[in-house]
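Progress against Task 2.4 (sequence-to-structure conversion) is shown through the following example record, which the project officer requested during the mid-term review.
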Amino acid sequence: MRGDENGDSPSFSARAGPQAAGEREKEGLSLFSGRRMLILGIGSDLCSIERIQASLDRFGERFERRVFTETERAKAAGRPLTRAGTLAKRFAAKEAFSKAVGTGFRRGVFMRDIGVVNKASGEPTLALTGGAKQRLDAMIPEGHAARIHLTMTDDHPFALAVVIISAVPREPDA
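Structure tokens generated for the chain above:
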């Protein structure tokens, strides 16, 4: 570990141990994989759980079917005491994704085309269909694969989601 010219702000490299501050950023290296990673979009959203509850009370199943996927509705149904919070986090994730791709809910990107799912590890991610998938595919540089990073949390009365869309080089065919 060494600092910058002033002797402070230590910097670490994902591949080569200590290095001068800023060098890692110039190379575009990911701290996690040692591979080049491009950040294509970042989006966040803060959602009122009470607003989602009010929509559920007023519009019921019509609201749920219009906004949420079957998987999301099933997850919320299994959490009756925190149903509105569960749906609010997913609503925020959809909004955050629409911001990360730069369209909002225009140009063919619809809420039902964006669904929160969990990997086998339990980590949340997004399953995309229709216009949302088309928009993401259009953003990815040739020779790269998309990665969607999602985090969600809630603390009544708010739910928060952050989406980071990155592109990493595709693995060479073996």
